[in-house]
């Protein structure tokens, strides 16, 4: 997922409105991931990651060949840097998919999407070696929300599966590493994303063969989930978000990334895949509010 930062502008032109529409489309597509993962419950995380990134590579290759299309602003196409980004992307996707299978999906999603907070904290630390009180307050607020999500009604730790929450947090750390790597390179050619997805798909496939059993043959629902994930959240959403980042108002587009866990949680509750309750509502508000507070300029 690209970084939540972009050029400063104001919402005064049709171009800016189209950019906001593109960013909103990406947010909605990312919010569907927990539901799509639920369509392939028997597929191991790395296998599903490999299939989804393969579909994403095909989608991006077709888009680039068909051009001209808006291309996301990305960075230096050196092979070590590309492989590092691919490893971070595979970790982010696979840890998230694995976490969704082990713990309540809405809670795992909220914990994973503390990544914009981690990104801001890491960026501030790299830039000046110190964190402001506003950033610390936002961090504490968001992690208070995460703590509320993993406690049961008696205050005991880890309602559900602790491994699922840990994997969700690892996914967020990987998204942060991916975003930092994407931010600190040079501008890349349009073929960057197809290469990134192909490298990530190949790496995920190798890791799958090494550490996971293979689910085969796949049910039609599982094939459909892998295809939709690759075409939408890990294909078109990257391009749409890149267009929003380059042409939309920075603060508005950046703030829209905080809506991903809200969209995901709303979908899960609406489809009966998550139980509504005060802990889920309060945790959502605290996580998103803390991230938004930290990301304010």
Q: What does this protein structure show overall?
A:
The chain is mainly alpha-helical and 297 residues long. It has one domain (14-295). Helix content is 73%, strand content 0%. It has 13 helices and no strands. The chain has helices at residues 14-31, 33-38, 45-66, 79-102, 105-112, 115-128, 133-150, 162-183, 192-211, 220-247, 250-256, 260-270, 278-295. The two termini are 21 Å apart.
How do you describe this structure in short?
The chain is mainly α.
H/I helix tally? 13
Calculate the mean pLDDT score and round it: 80
- Secondary structure category: mainly alpha
Rg, please? Answer: 18 Å
How far do the termini sit from each other? 21 Å
Q: Could you tell me the strand content as a percent range?
A: under 5%
What is the overall silhouette?
globular
Q: Helices and strands in order, then pairings?
A:
Layout lengths: L13 H18 L1 H6 L6 H22 L12 H24 L2 H8 L2 H14 L4 H18 L11 H22 L8 H20 L8 H28 L2 H7 L3 H11 L7 H18 L2
Helix pairs in contact: 1-10, 1-12, 3-4, 3-9, 3-10, 4-5, 4-8, 4-9, 5-8, 5-12, 5-13, 6-7, 6-8, 6-13, 7-13
